[in-house]
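tl;dr need the bound structure. longer version: we got a ligand (nicotinamide-adenine-dinucleotide) that a collaborator sent over and nobodys looked at where it sits. i said id run it. heres the input, straight from their email, havent touched it
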Amino acid sequence: MKIGFIGLGNMGAPMAANLVAAGHTVTGFDTAAPCPDGVSSAASAADAAANADVVITMLPNGAILRSVAADIHPTMRAGAVHLDCSTVDVDSARTVAEAARAAGLDAVDAPVSGGIGGAAGGTLTFMAGGSTAAFEACVPLFDIMGQKAVHCGDAGAGQAAKICNNMILAITMIGTCEAFALADKLGLDRSKMFDVVSTSSGYSWTMNAYCPAPGVGPQSPADNDYKPGFAADLMLKDLRLSQQAAEGADADTPLGAAATELYRSFVEDEDGAGRDFSAMLPRFSARSRG
Ligand code: NAD
Protein backbone atom coordinates (compact mmCIF):
# COMPACT_ATOMS: atom_id res chain seq x y z
CA MET A 1 0.00 0.00 0.00
CA LYS A 2 0.96 3.62 -0.38
CA ILE A 3 0.74 5.16 3.06
CA GLY A 4 0.98 8.79 4.19
CA PHE A 5 2.07 9.15 7.84
CA ILE A 6 1.66 12.47 9.63
CA GLY A 7 3.02 12.87 13.17
CA LEU A 8 6.28 10.95 13.59
CA GLY A 9 6.87 11.43 17.31
CA ASN A 10 7.43 8.83 20.03
CA MET A 11 4.60 6.64 18.78
CA GLY A 12 4.31 7.54 15.09
CA ALA A 13 7.98 6.99 14.17
CA PRO A 14 8.17 3.34 15.27
CA MET A 15 4.71 2.61 13.82
CA ALA A 16 5.80 4.03 10.44
CA ALA A 17 9.08 2.09 10.62
CA ASN A 18 7.15 -1.17 11.14
CA LEU A 19 5.02 -0.44 8.05
CA VAL A 20 8.19 0.11 5.99
CA ALA A 21 9.73 -3.10 7.35
CA ALA A 22 6.60 -4.96 6.19
CA GLY A 23 7.10 -3.71 2.63
CA HIS A 24 4.74 -0.72 2.42
CA THR A 25 5.70 2.57 0.79
CA VAL A 26 5.48 5.28 3.45
CA THR A 27 5.73 9.05 2.92
CA GLY A 28 5.91 11.02 6.15
CA PHE A 29 5.56 14.53 7.48
CA ASP A 30 6.15 16.05 10.92
CA THR A 31 6.55 19.71 11.87
CA ALA A 32 9.51 18.88 14.15
CA ALA A 33 10.56 15.22 14.22
CA PRO A 34 12.71 13.62 11.50
CA CYS A 35 11.39 10.78 9.34
CA PRO A 36 12.63 7.36 10.46
CA ASP A 37 14.83 5.31 8.07
CA GLY A 38 12.94 4.12 5.01
CA VAL A 39 10.17 6.75 5.26
CA SER A 40 10.44 9.37 2.51
CA SER A 41 10.03 12.90 3.73
CA ALA A 42 7.32 15.15 2.26
CA ALA A 43 7.39 18.96 2.33
CA SER A 44 3.92 19.23 3.88
CA ALA A 45 1.12 17.13 5.34
CA ALA A 46 -0.87 17.64 2.13
CA ASP A 47 2.05 16.31 0.06
CA ALA A 48 2.42 13.26 2.32
CA ALA A 49 -1.29 12.51 1.88
CA ALA A 50 -1.57 12.97 -1.89
CA ASN A 51 -1.99 9.66 -3.77
CA ALA A 52 -1.93 7.55 -0.60
CA ASP A 53 -4.33 4.64 -0.13
CA VAL A 54 -4.36 5.24 3.61
CA VAL A 55 -3.21 8.34 5.51
CA ILE A 56 -2.34 7.72 9.17
CA THR A 57 -2.26 10.61 11.64
CA MET A 58 -0.59 10.26 15.08
CA LEU A 59 -0.87 13.74 16.61
CA PRO A 60 -0.96 15.34 20.07
CA ASN A 61 -4.59 16.52 20.31
CA GLY A 62 -7.95 17.15 18.65
CA ALA A 63 -7.27 20.77 17.60
CA ILE A 64 -4.13 19.74 15.70
CA LEU A 65 -5.94 16.75 14.20
CA ARG A 66 -8.76 19.01 12.92
CA SER A 67 -6.28 21.42 11.36
CA VAL A 68 -4.22 18.64 9.71
CA ALA A 69 -7.44 17.01 8.44
CA ALA A 70 -8.45 20.29 6.79
CA ASP A 71 -5.05 20.36 5.04
CA ILE A 72 -4.97 16.76 3.84
CA HIS A 73 -8.56 15.90 2.89
CA PRO A 74 -8.53 18.06 -0.27
CA THR A 75 -5.38 16.35 -1.59
CA MET A 76 -6.34 12.77 -0.76
CA ARG A 77 -7.61 10.63 -3.62
CA ALA A 78 -11.32 9.66 -3.67
CA GLY A 79 -12.03 6.55 -1.65
CA ALA A 80 -8.80 6.72 0.38
CA VAL A 81 -8.97 6.18 4.15
CA HIS A 82 -7.95 8.66 6.84
CA LEU A 83 -6.86 6.47 9.78
CA ASP A 84 -6.38 8.57 12.91
CA CYS A 85 -4.52 6.75 15.71
CA SER A 86 -4.10 9.79 18.01
CA THR A 87 -5.94 9.98 21.33
CA VAL A 88 -8.36 12.90 20.93
CA ASP A 89 -11.79 14.02 22.14
CA VAL A 90 -14.80 12.14 20.77
CA ASP A 91 -16.20 15.33 19.15
CA SER A 92 -13.03 15.92 17.12
CA ALA A 93 -13.02 12.28 15.98
CA ARG A 94 -16.63 12.59 14.80
CA THR A 95 -16.08 15.98 13.15
CA VAL A 96 -13.03 14.74 11.24
CA ALA A 97 -14.89 11.60 10.12
CA GLU A 98 -17.78 13.74 8.88
CA ALA A 99 -15.37 16.04 7.00
CA ALA A 100 -13.72 12.99 5.42
CA ARG A 101 -17.08 11.65 4.23
CA ALA A 102 -17.97 15.05 2.78
CA ALA A 103 -14.68 14.99 0.84
CA GLY A 104 -15.43 11.54 -0.64
CA LEU A 105 -13.06 9.74 1.76
CA ASP A 106 -13.51 7.15 4.47
CA ALA A 107 -12.32 7.58 8.05
CA VAL A 108 -11.43 5.41 11.03
CA ASP A 109 -10.59 6.61 14.54
CA ALA A 110 -8.31 4.00 16.11
CA PRO A 111 -6.53 5.16 19.27
CA VAL A 112 -4.08 2.69 20.71
CA SER A 113 -2.99 1.20 23.97
CA GLY A 114 0.42 -0.36 24.48
CA GLY A 115 2.60 2.75 24.64
CA ILE A 116 6.01 3.28 23.08
CA GLY A 117 7.06 -0.33 23.68
CA GLY A 118 3.96 -1.58 21.89
CA ALA A 119 4.57 0.83 19.00
CA ALA A 120 8.18 -0.36 18.62
CA GLY A 121 7.33 -4.05 18.98
CA GLY A 122 4.25 -3.96 16.74
CA THR A 123 2.07 -5.13 19.61
CA LEU A 124 -0.38 -2.25 20.00
CA THR A 125 -4.10 -2.73 20.60
CA PHE A 126 -6.32 -0.62 18.31
CA MET A 127 -9.84 0.45 19.35
CA ALA A 128 -11.55 1.46 16.14
CA GLY A 129 -14.61 3.46 15.11
CA GLY A 130 -15.91 3.85 11.55
CA SER A 131 -17.62 1.89 8.79
CA THR A 132 -17.03 -1.85 8.48
CA ALA A 133 -15.52 -1.36 5.00
CA ALA A 134 -13.05 1.26 6.25
CA PHE A 135 -12.14 -0.84 9.29
CA GLU A 136 -11.49 -3.85 7.06
CA ALA A 137 -9.31 -1.78 4.73
CA CYS A 138 -7.13 -0.96 7.76
CA VAL A 139 -6.89 -4.50 9.17
CA PRO A 140 -3.68 -5.40 7.25
CA LEU A 141 -2.04 -2.30 8.78
CA PHE A 142 -3.37 -3.06 12.27
CA ASP A 143 -1.88 -6.56 11.90
CA ILE A 144 1.58 -5.06 11.29
CA MET A 145 1.47 -2.31 13.93
CA GLY A 146 -0.44 -4.25 16.56
CA GLN A 147 -1.56 -7.56 17.96
CA LYS A 148 -5.27 -6.81 18.27
CA ALA A 149 -7.86 -4.50 16.71
CA VAL A 150 -11.44 -4.24 17.94
CA HIS A 151 -14.10 -2.63 15.75
CA CYS A 152 -16.07 -0.78 18.44
CA GLY A 153 -18.75 0.88 16.30
CA ASP A 154 -19.27 4.04 14.26
CA ALA A 155 -17.10 7.17 14.16
CA GLY A 156 -15.88 8.14 17.64
CA ALA A 157 -16.45 4.68 19.14
CA GLY A 158 -12.72 3.96 19.26
CA GLN A 159 -12.04 7.14 21.23
CA ALA A 160 -15.00 6.40 23.52
CA ALA A 161 -13.63 2.91 24.30
CA LYS A 162 -10.16 4.29 24.96
CA ILE A 163 -11.20 6.98 27.44
CA CYS A 164 -13.62 4.68 29.27
CA ASN A 165 -10.87 2.05 29.62
CA ASN A 166 -8.37 4.59 30.88
CA MET A 167 -10.87 6.11 33.32
CA ILE A 168 -11.23 2.64 34.89
CA LEU A 169 -7.44 2.23 34.84
CA ALA A 170 -6.86 5.53 36.70
CA ILE A 171 -9.55 4.79 39.28
CA THR A 172 -8.26 1.28 39.98
CA MET A 173 -4.64 2.49 40.15
CA ILE A 174 -5.61 5.12 42.70
CA GLY A 175 -7.58 2.52 44.68
CA THR A 176 -4.66 0.08 44.64
CA CYS A 177 -2.20 2.79 45.74
CA GLU A 178 -4.48 4.07 48.51
CA ALA A 179 -4.89 0.56 49.83
CA PHE A 180 -1.10 -0.08 49.84
CA ALA A 181 -0.53 3.23 51.68
CA LEU A 182 -3.15 2.29 54.27
CA ALA A 183 -1.72 -1.24 54.59
CA ASP A 184 1.75 0.27 55.23
CA LYS A 185 0.37 2.42 58.05
CA LEU A 186 -1.40 -0.62 59.53
CA GLY A 187 1.93 -2.48 59.57
CA LEU A 188 0.92 -5.00 56.89
CA ASP A 189 3.79 -6.36 54.83
CA ARG A 190 3.46 -5.33 51.16
CA SER A 191 4.17 -8.81 49.83
CA LYS A 192 1.45 -10.27 52.09
CA MET A 193 -0.91 -7.57 50.91
CA PHE A 194 -0.12 -8.56 47.29
CA ASP A 195 -0.52 -12.28 47.98
CA VAL A 196 -3.96 -11.74 49.46
CA VAL A 197 -5.39 -9.07 47.15
CA SER A 198 -4.06 -10.51 43.89
CA THR A 199 -6.02 -13.69 44.60
CA SER A 200 -9.03 -12.07 46.29
CA SER A 201 -11.91 -9.87 45.20
CA GLY A 202 -9.75 -6.72 45.24
CA TYR A 203 -7.63 -8.02 42.37
CA SER A 204 -7.24 -5.89 39.25
CA TRP A 205 -4.83 -5.33 36.39
CA THR A 206 -3.17 -2.56 38.41
CA MET A 207 -2.48 -4.95 41.30
CA ASN A 208 -1.80 -8.18 39.44
CA ALA A 209 0.01 -7.04 36.28
CA TYR A 210 1.36 -3.55 37.05
CA CYS A 211 1.82 -3.56 40.83
CA PRO A 212 2.71 -0.04 42.05
CA ALA A 213 4.81 -1.37 44.96
CA PRO A 214 8.52 -1.93 44.13
CA GLY A 215 9.76 -5.48 44.60
CA VAL A 216 6.26 -6.89 44.80
CA GLY A 217 4.46 -8.83 42.06
CA PRO A 218 5.67 -8.88 38.44
CA GLN A 219 8.25 -6.41 37.09
CA SER A 220 6.64 -3.00 36.61
CA PRO A 221 7.72 0.68 36.41
CA ALA A 222 7.73 0.71 40.25
CA ASP A 223 10.83 -1.52 39.99
CA ASN A 224 12.50 1.07 37.78
CA ASP A 225 12.11 4.08 40.06
CA TYR A 226 8.70 4.84 38.47
CA LYS A 227 10.15 5.76 35.07
CA PRO A 228 7.28 5.44 32.57
CA GLY A 229 5.71 3.07 31.42
CA PHE A 230 2.66 5.16 31.09
CA ALA A 231 3.40 8.69 32.25
CA ALA A 232 1.06 10.42 34.73
CA ASP A 233 0.91 13.35 32.25
CA LEU A 234 -0.59 11.11 29.55
CA MET A 235 -3.04 9.65 32.05
CA LEU A 236 -4.10 13.20 32.95
CA LYS A 237 -4.68 13.96 29.26
CA ASP A 238 -6.92 10.89 28.88
CA LEU A 239 -8.81 11.65 32.12
CA ARG A 240 -9.51 15.17 30.92
CA LEU A 241 -10.88 13.75 27.67
CA SER A 242 -13.10 11.41 29.69
CA GLN A 243 -14.47 14.32 31.71
CA GLN A 244 -15.00 16.44 28.59
CA ALA A 245 -16.95 13.53 27.05
CA ALA A 246 -18.90 12.97 30.29
CA GLU A 247 -19.94 16.63 30.34
CA GLY A 248 -21.03 16.48 26.70
CA ALA A 249 -23.03 13.30 27.30
CA ASP A 250 -24.39 14.34 30.73
CA ALA A 251 -22.89 11.24 32.36
CA ASP A 252 -22.36 11.18 36.14
CA THR A 253 -18.70 10.18 36.70
CA PRO A 254 -17.77 11.20 40.27
CA LEU A 255 -14.77 8.88 40.61
CA GLY A 256 -13.54 9.85 37.14
CA ALA A 257 -13.74 13.51 38.22
CA ALA A 258 -11.90 12.78 41.48
CA ALA A 259 -9.20 10.82 39.62
CA THR A 260 -8.78 13.72 37.18
CA GLU A 261 -8.26 16.18 40.04
CA LEU A 262 -5.78 13.85 41.80
CA TYR A 263 -3.68 13.37 38.65
CA ARG A 264 -3.94 17.10 37.89
CA SER A 265 -2.50 18.08 41.25
CA PHE A 266 0.10 15.27 41.04
CA VAL A 267 1.32 16.42 37.61
CA GLU A 268 0.90 20.21 37.93
CA ASP A 269 1.46 21.01 41.62
CA GLU A 270 3.63 18.14 42.84
CA ASP A 271 6.45 16.03 41.38
CA GLY A 272 4.35 13.75 39.17
CA ALA A 273 5.26 15.14 35.73
CA GLY A 274 7.35 12.62 33.80
CA ARG A 275 6.80 9.84 36.37
CA ASP A 276 4.83 6.69 35.79
CA PHE A 277 1.15 6.91 36.74
CA SER A 278 1.74 4.25 39.43
CA ALA A 279 3.92 6.77 41.34
CA MET A 280 0.66 7.65 43.08
CA LEU A 281 1.82 5.09 45.67
CA PRO A 282 4.84 7.05 47.00
CA ARG A 283 2.64 10.17 46.78
CA PHE A 284 0.03 8.67 49.11
CA SER A 285 2.71 7.09 51.34
CA ALA A 286 4.33 10.50 51.93
CA ARG A 287 1.06 12.13 52.99
CA SER A 288 -1.11 12.05 56.06
CA ARG A 289 -4.85 12.35 56.31
CA GLY A 290 -5.07 16.11 56.78
P1 NAD B 1 4.65 13.05 20.42
O1 NAD B 1 4.46 14.42 20.95
O2 NAD B 1 5.94 12.32 20.64
O3 NAD B 1 4.36 13.04 18.82
C1 NAD B 1 3.45 13.88 18.17
C2 NAD B 1 4.14 14.40 16.92
O4 NAD B 1 3.23 15.20 16.17
C3 NAD B 1 5.35 15.29 17.23
O5 NAD B 1 6.52 14.76 16.61
C4 NAD B 1 4.97 16.66 16.64
O6 NAD B 1 6.07 17.36 16.09
C5 NAD B 1 3.98 16.24 15.58
N1 NAD B 1 3.10 17.32 15.15
C6 NAD B 1 2.47 18.26 15.92
N2 NAD B 1 1.73 19.07 15.15
C7 NAD B 1 1.88 18.64 13.86
C8 NAD B 1 1.35 19.06 12.62
N3 NAD B 1 0.51 20.10 12.53
N4 NAD B 1 1.73 18.39 11.51
C9 NAD B 1 2.57 17.33 11.58
N5 NAD B 1 3.10 16.87 12.75
C10 NAD B 1 2.75 17.52 13.86
O7 NAD B 1 3.42 12.19 21.01
P2 NAD B 1 3.28 10.60 21.03
O8 NAD B 1 3.71 10.07 22.36
O9 NAD B 1 3.84 10.03 19.78
O10 NAD B 1 1.68 10.47 21.03
C11 NAD B 1 0.92 10.63 19.86
C12 NAD B 1 -0.53 10.33 20.17
O11 NAD B 1 -0.63 8.98 20.67
C13 NAD B 1 -1.13 11.24 21.26
O12 NAD B 1 -2.45 11.54 20.89
C14 NAD B 1 -1.05 10.38 22.51
O13 NAD B 1 -2.04 10.72 23.46
C15 NAD B 1 -1.28 9.01 21.94
N6 NAD B 1 -0.73 7.92 22.75
C16 NAD B 1 0.54 8.01 23.25
C17 NAD B 1 1.04 6.96 24.02
C18 NAD B 1 2.45 7.00 24.58
O14 NAD B 1 2.78 6.15 25.41
N7 NAD B 1 3.29 7.94 24.15
C19 NAD B 1 0.24 5.83 24.29
C20 NAD B 1 -1.03 5.76 23.73
C21 NAD B 1 -1.51 6.82 22.97
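gonna send this back to them w/ a short note. The beta strands are 2-6, 25-29, 40-41, 54-57, 81-84, 106-109, 112-113, 124-130, 146-153.
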